[in-house]
Amino acid sequence: MAASDSEATYREMFESNPQPMWVCHRESLRFLAVNRAALQLYGYRREEFLELSLPALAAGRFDPEEARLGTTSGRQKRRDGSPLELELSWHPLDFLGEKACLVTLRESGTGRTGELERRVAEFRSQLEGAQRELETFSYSVSHDLRAPLRHIDGFSRALLDDYGAKLDAQGGEYLARICKAVAKMSQLIDDLQLLARVARSELNRQAVNLSVTAQVISLELKMGTPGRQAEFRIAEGVSVQADPRLTRQLLEILIGNAWKFSARQKECRIEFGSGEREGETFFFVRDNGVGFDMAYADKLFSVFHRLHRADEFEGSGVGLAIAQRIVRRHGGRIWFQSAPEEGATFFFTLQGSP
Predict the structure, then answer these.
(1) Which candidate, 25, 105, 159, 291, has a CA 20 to 30 Å from the CA of 52?
(2) CA contacts within 13 A on the Cβ side of 25
(3) Distance of CA 163 to the CA centre of its chain
(4) Where does residue 346 rank: exposed (0-12), middle (13-18), buried (19+ CB within 10 A)?
(5) For the segment 16-58, what is each residue's pLDDT rounded down to a tens digit?
(6) Mean residue pLDDT across the chain
(7) C-alpha 295, offset from chain centre
(8) What was the pLDDT predicted at 112?
């Protein structure tokens, strides 16, 4: 069975299972996935539930250490505030490369059967198997596609070099388009591999000065386009406990997008800074570029989804999916505000912020 078919099968098993269940990040306890039965139990829409973490559902005292002890019980609350007496069974697993827990729920007093436990264990094993298959598939795509791409590019360039004088203008243009398409495909493979590596890589938290990282990225962009006028406003002293390599990639994507989508402005402005809301530190990247209509932004973090035509702005459509994956690896969240021709602001949090 192909990896994509395998993934679809296990997603459907999770989604259609009558047993309420969800997956949460093992450190931050933020929700990563939830099935229909759990959404019906709590009364949330999916997008609302995935913005929460487990403490937000507690109806009384909540001890995060007790939440990882295998089986716990306690009172929680539905979206409307009504109470739920639940027993939670915790099952550690790796989910999309993150240390997570699959949690099954039952209301107290409904009883438990050995068959249910067996089905949960079987489902967990299948889910982990699907993850391994996806990783193998990702490697195969990268390895097996690169060789024919190199051959297409190499022979196309050989034709241009050796027989260019015998080709008319249209023939030369066709070969140039082939080379350009090959380069785009190669970049797409690189981006998909980066997305896969983000999920698999070990998280190495340490003190990171995001201000310095943003300054370095801004200088690199200016040097790459020396004739372009742009103003960078980068707040000083913005630091965080995070993986330095992944946060560098995150800022490269967000600042790079701001640079790309503000290219048409006569006075380009790009900002990086931080703030605090309800005791939580957040970071932001803001630009005064073309922006986008929020009505069409529900799939902005999906792979290959674009809000602008490819002939307007180059890109693979993978960058923001990578950015979201990096933020989630840190137990944080990412969101945005924008309007057409009024620029865009991307906000994100990273658990471990000072």
Answers:
(1) 291
(2) 21
(3) 46
(4) buried
(5) 899 999 999 988 889 999 999 999 999 999 999 999 988 889 8
(6) 81
(7) 20
(8) 46
How many CB atoms lie under 10 A from the CB of residue 324? 22
Instruction: Give the Cα separation of 11 and 67 in Å (integer).
Output: 25
pLDDT in tens, 98-123: 888 899 998 765 444 445 666 677 77
pTM: 0.54
